[in-house]
Amino acid sequence: MKTLDNTVMIKKKNGLEIPLFISISLFSLLFFLSSTANGQIKSGQAPNIVLIFMDDMGYGDLDLNGAIGYTLPNINKLASQGMRFTNFYAAQPICSASRAGILTGCYPNRIGLTGALFPDSKIGMNSAEETIPEVLKKKGYATSMVGKWHLGDAKEFLPLQHGFDEYFGLPYSNDMWSIAYDGKLETDKSSWRSKVPPLPLIEGNNIIETIQNMDQMNTLTTRYTEKAVSFIERHKGRPFFLYFAHTMPHVPLAVSDKFKGKSEQGLYGDVMMEIDWSVGQIMKILKENDLENNTLVVFTSDNGPWLTFGAHGGSSGGLREGKQTTFEGGQREPAIMRWPGVIPEGTVNNKLASTIDLLPTFAAITEAPLPEKKIDGINILPLFKGNEYENPRDTFYYYYGKNSLEAVREGPWKLVLPHKYKSDEGELPGKDGNIGSRHTDSIGLALYDLRRDPGERYNVLKHNPDVVEKLQKLVERARVDLGDDLTGRPGNNRREPGRIGAE
User: Fold this and answer.
1) Host domain of residue 78
2) What is the DSSP track for 337-350?
3) For residues 400 and 109, is the Cβ–Cβ distance under 8 A?
4) Which spans are transmembrane here (predicted)?
């Protein structure tokens, strides 16, 4: 017998007529419950964690944030399958400090690591600081770091001494070599470039070769990706943590032949397309080994774009200024997080969060104990789960330089404190990879409502004295805790970096 729409049949059983759709529905329900149970078992296992960290990629450098002239299908797919954060901040707007923050869950100035460390630095990551891999190793994780380290190049500061089982990459930025931005060998003996050692490529604790020219530099993204894929393949049988810190798109831009000339935006677009390919390779190996549903993937950047390099320096997406400033263009970063079954697909999160929140969040996910020393990160796992009523982080401090407190944010309000800074606004940027002009500017006390003014153009200080008073109390709290060079405050809870020869 058929129903009027020809979809429901009648099935005879024990002399009774039973609608077939009930039988089908019962089977579907049982299958669903079985699948859900299996999913719960799998989600109860310790998840793998892949942290992809870009170098100098700005808020506007993803096509889902407005970039044009190239497309990033793998990164876009990552976002469509996970959560995109719109108010996500790097720990500081410069290389070494930012990396110290993401790995320790601390404001970098708390642990004495600021700025960008140069080759042969006498300081680096203090062994007394606990890093993400050291936290995860307590739960049996295999750990690997691929790419740019930049937390000290002496052996005692390298990744293997800070919780990583494996390391392959550069110990600092790819422009810290004897070749100037014009691509020529530095001949000026007074320049710092003439005094630095050859750019070393390190595996484990050993230099395996030196990068002598751009032809070698062009292979880095591919070689990094091959190492990352190999690590996943070799450790697919146990929980693993992969910290994949790309050298690109930091200048000098380098790209393999397979992507050279492929974008409509020139070399920068080519580089971004190769990075997207790299993300695709990571996702491919996870899928091939049935790991993608039990792996948390985080994609973000260390600081904003280096705007003085023009077309080689990326885009802030309309945010004010860029790298080396605490305006939004310097520290607000693209951030995508994917974890099937936990993070809702295709969602956007507008809550405040930071790279310093990743360590305590990973600890919460894996039930690992937090570091004994004070950290500044906050567990943002409730945001991963899409709970719109949760707001783990409501405050963020913007430090720069050695220990200068330049701004504070609470909710939508950002109070900028008087300070000087290097500005790109109104200046002609460089061309073809060369550096452009910048000037020193200054700003007085200013209040911005980032809901309506993410570009920080309209100072609404006079209209909101109560907000200013509230934020000034937060500023005072930070000055007591961490200090502030701008007002001569030392702070009570700062720690020393590692030093060569220190016991």
Assistant:
1) 47-394
2) EE-TTTSPTTEEE-
3) no
4) none
Per the DSSP assignment, residues forming a β-bridge with 48 are 295
The first and second tokens of residue 236, run together, are 């697919």
Between CA 38 and CA 41 the distance in angstroms is 5
Which two structure tokens, joined as six digits, stand for 331? 């520290």
| Domain boundary pick from 375, 394, 413 | 394
* pLDDT digit string, tens, across residues 131-153: 999 999 999 999 999 999 999 99
- The answer to whether the Cα torsion of 58, 181, 223, 172 is positive or negative is negative
Say if CB 172 and CB 199 are below 8 A apart. no
Q: Domain check: are 134 and 188 in the same one?
A: yes
76 and 159 in one domain? Answer: yes
User: How many structural domains compose the chain?
Assistant: 2
Active site residue 106: no
In whole angstroms, give the CA distance from residue 358 to residue 32. Answer: 33
312 assigned to active site? no
Pull the structure tokens for residue 342.
């936990």
| Interval 4-51: pLDDT, tens | 333 334 344 444 444 433 333 443 333 333 333 333 324 458 999 999
- Residues 223 and 347 both lie in one domain: yes
Give CA–CA dist 346/82, Å, rounded. Answer: 5
Contact 139, 171 (CB under 8 A): no
Measure Cα distances from 122 to 112, 198, 395, 407 in Å.
13, 18, 33, 30
Rounded to two decimals, the pTM is: 0.91
d(CA 57, CA 76): 16
Look up residue 217 and give its two tokens.
């530099």
Query: Do 163 and 220 belong to one domain?
Result: yes
| Cα–Cα dist 149/158, whole Å | 8
CATH number for 422? 3.30.1120.10
Q: Quick check: 232 and 51 in contact, CB under 8 A?
A: no
Q: How many residues does the chain have?
A: 503
Domain end marker among 345, 376, 394: 394
How many Cβ atoms sit within 10 Å of the Cβ of residue 297? Answer: 25
Same domain, yes or no: 355 and 466: no
Place of tokens 């050859």: 198
**405 and 338 within one domain:** no
Residue partners of 206: CB distance under 8 A and separation at least 6: none
Candidates 106, 150, 250, 312; catalytic one: 150
- Quick one: DSSP state of residue 83? E
Tokens of residue 149, six digits: 């380290």
The pLDDT tens digits for 240-275 are: 999 999 999 999 999 999 999 999 999 999 999 999
